[in-house]
Amino acid sequence: LVFCADVYSQYKIHTERCNVLFQPTICDYILYIFRGMREYDPNLSEAFNIPAAWFAVQLGIAYFVGNYPTKDTEGYGIQYIIRSGSKCLWVASKCIYSAIATVQFYLIGYVVVAFWALLFGRFEFSLSEDIGMYISNINAEVITDSIFVIRVLVLPLLTSIAVSIFQTVLMLVVRPIYSYLAIIVIVSASA
Q1: Residues 6 or more apart in contact with residue 110 via CB below 8 angstroms
Q2: Under a CB-based contact definition with an 8 Å cutoff, are residues 115 and 127 in contact?
Q3: Structure confidence by residue, pLDDT tens digits, 97-113
Q4: Tens of pLDDT along 47-97?
Q5: Virtual CA dihedral for 137, 138, 139, 140, nearest 10 degrees?
Q6: CA–centroid distance for 31 within its chain
Q7: Distance CA 50, CA 139 (A)
Q8: Alpha-carbon gap, residue 1 to 178, rounded angstroms
Q9: For residue 155, what are the CA distances in angstroms to 9, 136, 175?
Q10: What pLDDT, on a 0 to 100 scale, did the predictor assign at position 86?
Q11: Which string of DSSP letters, residue by residue, matches 164-189?
């Protein structure tokens, strides 16, 4: 909700400056959250800025997903390993859990964004040309619906699933704090 409110306030400022009414759509909100950043060139004078919304989503997933396997190994999870007879099966179940939990996290996020757009924008699945250029520096004219679905809906989800499975496996090998630190480094480097 915080990120949706941030997008809405930026659109409102842009509306006041241009004297044109801009109402963000579902896609505008999602694009803002997953917009990433331009390729960093150390020769330019621009600072390296990690997009806060995207970073917070990835760290939220890391915490949400990573908490369960850790608690499970400390408690009754050892009994499941012994009774299942296969540690590989137990690890596979934790990886499947990580993937399902990540999908749930994204679905909840998409529902919240859609609800926000219904209340404070347009409940449409399209990109606004002016808004895309102002907020995300993206030309909405060149982005088709299929490109949007793949690059903004599917790829972030698949990337988050891969990172969460990696974190789950890493958490079983090293201490949980080190796996969280590894995820922070990976997410920061991939911004």
Answers
A1: 30
A2: no
A3: 899 999 999 998 889 88
A4: 666 777 778 888 888 888 877 776 766 666 667 667 777 778 888 888 898
A5: -130
A6: 11
A7: 21
A8: 29
A9: 27, 18, 29
A10: 75
A11: HHHHHHHHHHS-HHHHHHHHHHHHHH
Decide if 143 contacts 73 (C-beta within 8 A): no
pLDDT at 31: 78
What percent of the chain has a predicted confidence (pLDDT) above 90?
6
Long-range (24+ apart) CB contacts under 8 A made by 135-142 are: 135/7, 135/10, 135/11, 135/14, 135/28, 135/31, 135/32, 135/35, 136/31, 136/32, 136/35, 137/38, 138/31, 138/35
Alpha-carbon gap, residue 171 to 69, rounded angstroms? 8
pLDDT of 41 strictly over 70: no
Q: Are 29 and 116 in contact (CB under 8 A)?
A: yes
Which tokens hold the place of 170?
């890493």
Q: Going by C-beta distance under 8 Å and a sequence separation of 6 or more, which residues neighbour residue 3?
A: 29, 32, 33, 53, 56
Rounded to whole angstroms, how far apart are CA atoms 14 and 18?
A: 6
